[in-house]
Amino acid sequence: MVGVQLSGGLxxxxxxxxxxxxxxSMGKDVRIxxxxxxxxxxxxxxxxxxxxxxxxxxxxxxxxxxxxDSSMSPLHRARRLLCGRKDLSYREVSCNYxxxxxxxxxxLLLGYFQTERYFADIKExxxxxxTFRNLTLTKESAAMEQQxxxxxxxxVHIRRGDYLTPANQALFGGICDLDYYHRxxxxxxxxxxxxxxxxxxxDMEWTKExxxxxxxxxxxxxxxxxxxxxxxxMSCCKNHILANSSFxxxxxxxxxxxxxxxIAPEKWMNGRDCCDIYxxxxxxx
Length: 285
Description:
This protein has 2 domains: about 130 residues, no CATH class; about 150 residues, Rossmann fold, CATH 3.40.50. By secondary structure, it is α/β, with parallel strands linked by helices.
């Protein structure tokens, strides 16, 4: 048996589920652990995949205890004291493709698996899985969708909020700064002059202050807890400017347009090589 641990928000869960599908396609007996990483404070983050109506086999508590050797029964505790723990968890070794992820068995796989390389040969299956079957658009989102379809639309993801905390600043700070967005906008305009930019952000006040004019349209009204509305709207756009975030990565990936432009930052994280997160179509600036 192989387990894939669900963790993070919607974008991360999508990478984890894509890996689950890949392992299933290889004929493996696969489970998803959708409990361990989420405490009482994070109940709203558990299984955000429900918007797609996907299903999976859940790892049971006995299965988790067996694969991690974490049972607290007296017999197991005594054995661990004598022989040591036999934890079969395996964490990805870096941000890039790790072939061991597809080989380990039995194992509980830990990580984010943020590269298309894991599921490149089943892309259409992944795309079909991530159809918004259970999404009911708000009135505002439906109107915004119509606008996006009627013009040469560009999604622009500006992630601040949680990225401004000291811990996240160390990893993500200083990459998608104002200068990056100016370069990205200029690159889009150079290739497609007649465009309209749709702004997605968790700090809309800052965003509207720095991006004003009739060609910039703020996408408002959706809370961070209703991120599936924004993800769907991103996927409706015809071009994309990404933040260094799995959320906008998927927003662009789910757009199946043949002529789309996808602009991404030159680097993804500070101090880490994340070259495999980029797809062939991405233009790095």
